[in-house]
Design goal:
alpha+beta; Beta-Lactamase; Helix Hairpins; 5-stranded antiparallel beta sheet; 23% strand; phosphorelay sensor kinase activity; HisK_dim/P_sf
């Protein structure tokens, strides 16, 4: 008596099972013969294109689907007969194609078709509506590769050669393994990824081509599949070309009539690009949140330091040069001013520090920094510049750029480097690279600070731009150096990136916008024309913080002003409307209520107030000046700085 054959050894049943499993996938599928007659399809095809079931049957003319679409206006306005004739003629050419199509209901379909020699033409339909929506929302396309494998062959008998032609044309890894975990089928994708020969299944071992570590990690998922559960999981796979891909695999169990699992269908996709885009988005969101938090903290501390420094300065003047002033007041003032430097660093990270940008020749700037630092480098450390021959002009704050270079070179020194090289060169940010860096594509100036030091691991690279993060010993660094560099570069409209690994050094790369054509003129502020700041002129002081208002009011009185106060923009504009003799407006920028300091300044200019000035501990988008050339004073400030500021009237 012969032994009954298992389901997997029956070719017809195996193919039917494969088709049934593929029918579970959301991707549409059609196979037509050389006469444009329908050989096979799946239900996703009918659902995605909203076709009635009656249109689909073995041998159905594909022209019928096209005519159905034309009659219901799927192809837009125009003669339906001409639309049908044009598309039928294109179909008869059996040319490979791939395009995206937007249906009237807004659904976006990706259509890919390839000829199958000796059979006809296979077409796959993918709903990519969600992917397109995600690309619009996050500036960085993040598209999950949907399952692309779908086919149903009706009652036709397909040979193994025919099935291979179909599955090999699909951009995914497709396989089947039996209850002994022996592979019975793999498509061409396994050859592309792992160098496996689909004709030598006896040599295919998942443990061997994945490696012991990866195999042990995914084995629990295989166990769940053999328990009857469809599972999806992700893992890292090293391929024959040296690439490490992030793979997403779905296992669909095949069950016999009695419910026993006799094997599994395996579908694998490459989701490396999706994962990389998601990581970039998460990093960008984290840095933006840190920047907002840092900017808000800096604003509040600047107000506090304004009160502290203002009162200590006044107290110091009243105490004179006595011993108590030197012992108590002077150290406190020095500590407060160090706090000002700390807040300035935080504002740098938050991209809210005032910049004095202009067209700057990068090579001389880099050369100056290297020349100054070379003497302070440890013996045996070689510091050099590779600037090329052509001048490179970037639109940047030269002083801030030099500070950034100093920070990066000193970091390289602390990484125990024996060689540090500062390279400058013209570069072009391609759209793909610009998207990775969250920057604007186009020509730029690239500056690399490369060292052969100890390098960084992945965890350090992920946090290197965060404020107060440092790998140096306690007391050896504030952790603000690279965060200042990051904020300066981003505020300048550029990008920054780090390439580093333990044991092979670090390269910090800056991309800065090229200075275009003619020099951009800086905003000029006209002088008041009189040396005397004020006789008994009337000043309007606008500040919502009462402690800050008290300090600034005293400074204005010391400068000879009579002072009228307002605690918000609405009150200030009312005073301006009813007090024409105001000689000076000094207003905070950020205040509660619907009217901010910039609007008050514009109102004062319209009322032709002779002197208009602004002050701020933090103002989004400020660049050192207010509207129409109104000067901006950064909190905290000294009485001398205030005196210098109010000498300048507003521009006409």
């Amino acid at each position: 008596m012969s032994t009954p054959s298992s389901p997997i050894e029956d070719p017809l049943k195996r193919y039917r099972s494969l088709q049934a499993a593929l029918d579970l996938i959301d991707q549409g599928f059609t196979l037509i013969d050389n006469d444009l007659g329908l050989l096979a399809w799946n239900r996703s095809f009918l659902r995605l294109l909203d076709f009635p079931d009656t249109l689909a049957f073995p041998g159905a003319p594909f022209e019928g689907f096209i005519r159905y679409n034309a009659d219901r206006g799927e192809y837009g306005p125009g003669d339906a007969a001409a639309q049908v004739a044009e598309r039928v003629e294109a179909a008869r050419r059996f040319e490979s194609h791939e395009f995206e199509r937007v249906r009237p209901d807004g659904t976006v379909l990706k259509v890919r078709g390839v000829p199958v020699p000796g059979i006809g033409f296979i077409t796959l339909y993918s709903d990519i509506t969600a992917q397109k929506r995600a690309e619009r929302q996050i500036l960085e396309h993040a598209a999950e590769l949907e399952r692309r494998v779908a086919e149903r062959t009706s009652e036709l008998r397909l040979s193994e050669a025919q099935m291979r032609l179909i599955t090999d044309s699909i951009p995914a890894l497709i396989a089947y393994f039996d209850h002994r975990k022996a592979y019975r089928y793999i498509n061409r994708g396994y050859q592309d990824w792992f160098g496996l020969d689909p004709r030598r299944l006896d040599r295919v071992s998942a443990r061997e081509f994945l490696g012991d570590t990866t195999y042990e990690a995914i084995r629990p998922n295989v166990t769940r599949a053999f328990a009857g559960e469809a599972v999806t999981y992700e893992y890292e796979a090293r391929c024959v070309d040296g690439r490490v891909r992030t793979a997403r695999t779905t296992l669909i169990p095949e069950k016999s009539a009695d419910g026993a699992v006799v094997g599994c269908f395996e579908l694998t996709f490459d989701v490396s690009e999706l994962r990389r885009t998601q990581q970039q988005l998460a990093q960008a969101e984290k840095m933006e949140a840190l920047g907002q938090l840092t900017g808000g903290i800096a604003h509040d501390f600047n107000n506090m330091l304004t009160v502290i420094i203002g009162n200590l300065g006044a107290l110091r003047e009243r105490m004179g040069d006595g011993e108590q002033a030197a012992d108590f007041v002077d150290p406190t003032l020095a500590a407060a001013r160090r706090g000002v430097d700390l807040i300035r660093a935080l504002l740098g990270f938050a991209r809210r520090q005032p910049l004095n940008a202009g067209a700057a020749d990068i090579a001389p700037l880099a050369g100056t920094v290297v020349k100054l630092l070379r003497r302070s480098m440890p013996e045996g450390l070689k510091l050099e510049v590779d600037a090329g021959e052509k001048p490179l002009r970037a639109w940047v704050d030269a002083s801030q750029l030099q500070d950034a270079l100093v920070n990066m070179i000193l970091n390289a020194r602390d990484a125990k480097a024996s060689r540090v090289t500062v390279r400058t060169a013209p570069a072009v940010l391609t759209p793909e690279r610009a998207e990775e860096l969250q920057a604007t594509p186009g020509p730029c100036v690239r500056i690399d600070v490369a060292d052969d030091g100890q390098g960084m691991d992945a965890a350090t690279r992920a946090r290197v731009f965060e404020p107060f993060f440092t790998t140096k010993r306690h007391g050896a660094g504030t952790g603000l150096g690279m965060s200042m560099v990051y904020g300066f570069v981003r505020q300048s409209g550029g990008a920054i990136d780090i390439d580093s690994a333990l044991g092979r050094g670090t390269v910090v790369s800056l991309w800065l916008p090229v200075a275009a054509g003619a020099e951009r003129a800086d905003i000029e502020v006209e002088a008041a024309g009189a040396e005397r700041v004020a006789g008994r002129s009337l000043a309007l002081l606008v500040e919502d913080d009462p402690d800050v208002r008290k300090v600034v009011r005293r400074s204005l009185i010391d400068l000879g002003f009579a002072v009228v106060e307002a605690e918000n923009g609405t009150e200030a504009m009312t005073i301006l409307d009813h007090t024409p003799q105001i000689d000076l407006l000094l207003s905070d920028v950020v205040m509660p209520g619907p009217v901010d300091g910039r609007e008050v300044a514009r109102h004062a200019l319209a009322r032709r107030v002779p002197r208009v000035a602004l002050m701020s501990g933090y103002a989004p988008g400020e660049i050192g000046n207010g509207p129409e050339g109104v000067p901006m004073l950064a909190k905290p400030f000294t009485q001398r700085q205030l005196a210098d500021l109010v000498r300048h009237p507003a521009r006409d």
